[in-house]
Please model this.
Amino acid sequence: MVVSLNKGPFSYSGNKSRIWKMYLREEMCKYDRVHEFFLGSGVCVYNANNGGVATDKDPHVVALHHALQDKQLHVKVENVYRDYFPNGNDKSCYNKLRIDFNKEYNDNGITEQNVPMLYTLLQLSFNSLLRFGPNGYNVPFGNKNLDVERIRNHSEIFRNKNISVKLGSYDTIELDSISKENDVIYLDPPYVASKFQYGGWNDSDEAGLLKHIDTLSNNGYSFILSNTFSHRGANNDRLIEWSRKYNTRLIKMTYNAWASRVSSVSNERNTVEVIITNIPSAFNDLPQAHQRGNHK
Ligand SMILES: C[S@@+](CC[C@H](N)C(=O)[O-])C[C@H]1O[C@@H](n2cnc3c(N)ncnc32)[C@H](O)[C@@H]1O
Model:
């Protein structure tokens, strides 16, 4: 049975909760496992019927997922909150917790001992951002509510579904554990089509990824890729061309609307989001991105 939590265990910028709920859920529920090659907060893998294998290059992300193996994590987070915030949410208490966490973090990285402090900070911080600078976690107080249930639920899922998270690049995933018949691979890479590139994702990373997806597809694996044709004033021409051979769907936009946007893409609000897949029957209620798509 699918447990629908919508969100991952922690907030993450670029997470796919909204897109999962509106578009991906229906298709992904048809598969036994969903393998998430760019994990982030892992919305899809936690919601999959039977988990999946996942990778992320960010060690902080991976440590937060691994911490969920501890059945008592939510209790430890509650204890941190009780110790540091005796009178409820307070900025100076938050700053003290952040100093104490960073002292440990700077000596030992994220450990079993300090990860409950990080979960507490994350939930209370401004926009619940996961952001580290040279001196450690550096997000200011955000006066958010603590939600220990979210941690308890995800810890249960992590331990009961077949979820495996590894630190590393998407192309290091061993394909032996992925079923061609019953599973789907979900890819949600950083966007190259952006004037404000982040995470060091560049054009050659993008080209390598698209080639890798072609190989997966040619070898019989089902994939779903989330991406943008244009984002914050930049077009991803390579992706647009590449996607013509697959089933490519626009999210909330007609073909004519995107075609006119892509030809005049100077406006930074012109984000065109797409879902690209080699599953011919998927997402057919969404508009096609290419008028005469040559779908697989
Ligand atoms: C857009 S986010 C994924 C968000 C995720 N779908 C969610 O719902 O939270 C992209 C993720 O890819 C990770 N990443 C960047 N390069 C990677 C690579 N070569 N292999 C695996 N993960 C990578 C980043 O650390 C980031 O967590």
